[in-house]
Structures are given as C-alpha cells and as structure tokens.
User: Which sequence fits this backbone?
C-alpha cells in the first residue's frame, strides 16, 4: 500500500467510524472494535478490503454480496442499513473492476434489495444474462433452514465467486444462534448466510465483512474484543447464553459506525485505487437508494420506523458522509500544491 492510498484509507476509516448514537456503551464500542481489527490487519481497514477485492476480482468475475437484517413485525423486509451500502459497493465493483455482483438475501427481502440496487444504477437480470451484460447484477435467495450449505455449494458451482462480501449480515455464535445488537435471538427466518462464508473459507475464496456492532459476519476475526467490549457480547439475553459475538470470520473486516458507511467507504477506496474518484456515486443516487429502500418496505433498524433514515440518523447525514468520502479521495489523489505564499 503506497503512502497516498494509506493516507486516503486512514481518512476513510476515520470518517466511517464516527459514531452518532444515543448515550451508553454503543457510543464507544465501534472505536474499541476498530482498534482490535486495526491491530490485527495492520493497515487502514477500508483500503485493505478495497485493495484485496481489486486483487481478487478480474473482469467478469462474480462477487457474491449478502445483506439484509430484519426482525419480525418491526422490520418485515429488513432495515435501511445494509441494502444501500451493499448496492453502492456492488455498483462500484461493477463499474471499477467490471465484476458481476450477485446479491444473496432472505427471500422476503429480495424485492427490497432489487429496488435499492436498481436505484444504485445496477440493472437486474438473471445470472446467465448478468454475467454477459456490464452494469447488471443478479439476486438469489438464501434459505433460513438446514438447506443453506447445499444451496451455498450450488451457488459456488454456478457462479464461481472470486470474493464474498457481507454488509450488515448477522452471523451465529458457536452454538449456531445469531443475535440482534441487543443480544436477543435473531428471527427464525434469518438467512443462514454463514454457509457462504464457511464454504469460502474452505475453498480459499477471499471474504469481506462489514458491520457496526460485532454480531455481524466478519467479526469472528476479533471475537475476543467483541466479547470484551460489546454489551451482550459474551452473555446474551437469550437462552443460549453464549453471547452475540459471532464465530464467522472474514479475511478483511471493516468496522463502521453504520454498516452502509463502511461499505461506501470501501467503494470510495476502490475508486481511489483506480485513480477515478468520479466513479463514486452521486448524492442524488445515494438519496434515491435510501428512498427506494424505504418505499419498498425497509425500516430504520434503530428506530423501528419507516423513515428515510439509517440507524437513527437522517438522510442528510448519509449525504454529508458521502460528500466527505468524495473529497477525501478527490483531493487526496491530487499532486502536492506549490503555493506561492
Ligand atoms: Zn443467545
């Protein structure tokens, strides 16, 4: 990693780990988890993920991207944190690397994710068409039952993914229980997306996890830190008693204040690697993704309301951070200034 990209990565990491949360443990946990991940990875997390994705994906290679977090009657088709970030990252991988994004989520969330991806500029096709047509993607269901490993194997056979990415996707602990951020058991309808990551680990396929609480796929990489710093990390509020810290680790891990911010920061880092900051999506697209996500049924995961907001922060915050990411990569790639003053 050269100095320019490292410096850009440092700034993207700082921006995406800002925490705008109510009082309590949640205000500081992201910083503690970031420190643990940073110590292990030894480089800015966003740039590390971006560089390794860029190295793993050749033109027309498939990248599997999973997202979607719902909770019974409060979030019946999922929340606004996840789909917009996954769509933005998928669109960047499509544009910058000519990769073919295939999104995997709960069958109940497919329409919501498709609408969000389309708003992000990705056309929706079946896989056989998407693999030939640039700028398009495919979506597939990920089951919530014991068929998940067989389905994951089928997807690996059909799509031959060269990278697998999770954005705000719950991961189970050692006894197979996934938890919400408040240490309660996840919905029984939760897609067993960990099957994709277990298979990727077995086959040496590169993986990325993006999350904001420690209960998501990827954080198995720093499980001890999650158990130590996250409320309910070691001891949950459910009968399993094993805590919300997930066993599922990924090669690259991006810790963020809100998962969408982490995913967009990785997208910005990829644009920087390509020397093409103009590839980062516009404020208009960001706003449209969020609006489409809500229009098709998603709710704010912190508020439990169908508002155009993410984890309790309004659309203006999503747009402000996007603009800061844009300026970090745009100005950060410019040559030194020779000031005559
Ligand atoms: Zn539990």
Assistant:
């Amino acid at each position: 990693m050269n100095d320019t990209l490292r410096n850009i990565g440092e700034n993207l990491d700082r921006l995406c780990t800002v925490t705008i949360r109510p009082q309590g443990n949640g205000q500081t946990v992201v910083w503690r988890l970031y420190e643990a991940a940073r110590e292990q990875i030894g480089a800015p997390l966003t740039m590390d993920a971006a560089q390794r994705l860029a190295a793993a994906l050749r033109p027309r290679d498939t990248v599997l991207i999973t997202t979607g977090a719902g909770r019974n009657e409060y979030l019946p088709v999922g929340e606004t944190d996840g789909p917009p970030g996954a769509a933005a990252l998928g669109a960047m991988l499509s544009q910058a690397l000519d990769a073919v994004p295939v999104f995997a989520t709960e069958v109940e969330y497919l329409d919501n994710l498709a609408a969000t991806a389309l708003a992000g500029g990705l056309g929706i096709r079946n896989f056989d068409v998407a693999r030939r047509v640039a700028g398009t993607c495919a979506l597939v269901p990920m089951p919530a039952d014991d068929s998940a490993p067989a389905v994951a194997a089928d997807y690996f056979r059909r799509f031959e993914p060269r990278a697998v990415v999770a954005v705000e996707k719950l991961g189970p602990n050692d006894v197979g229980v996934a938890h919400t951020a408040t240490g309660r058991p996840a919905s029984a309808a939760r897609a067993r997306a960990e099957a994709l990551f277990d298979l990727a680990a077995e086959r040496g396929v590169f993986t990325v996890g993006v999350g904001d609480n420690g209960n998501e796929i990827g954080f198995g990489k720093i499980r001890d830190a999650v158990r130590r710093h996250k409320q309910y990390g070691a001891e949950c509020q459910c009968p399993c008693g094993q805590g919300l810290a997930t066993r599922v680790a990924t090669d690259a891990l991006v810790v963020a204040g809100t998962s969408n911010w982490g995913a967009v920061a990785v997208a910005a880092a990829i644009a920087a690697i390509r020397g093409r900051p103009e590839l980062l999506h516009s404020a208009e697209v960001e706003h449209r993704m969020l609006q489409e996500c809500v229009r098709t049924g998603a709710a704010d995961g912190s508020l439990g309301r169908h508002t155009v907001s993410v984890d309790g922060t309004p659309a203006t915050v999503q747009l402000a951070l996007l603009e800061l990411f844009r300026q970090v990569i745009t100005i950060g790639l410019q040559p030194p200034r020779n000031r005559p003053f």
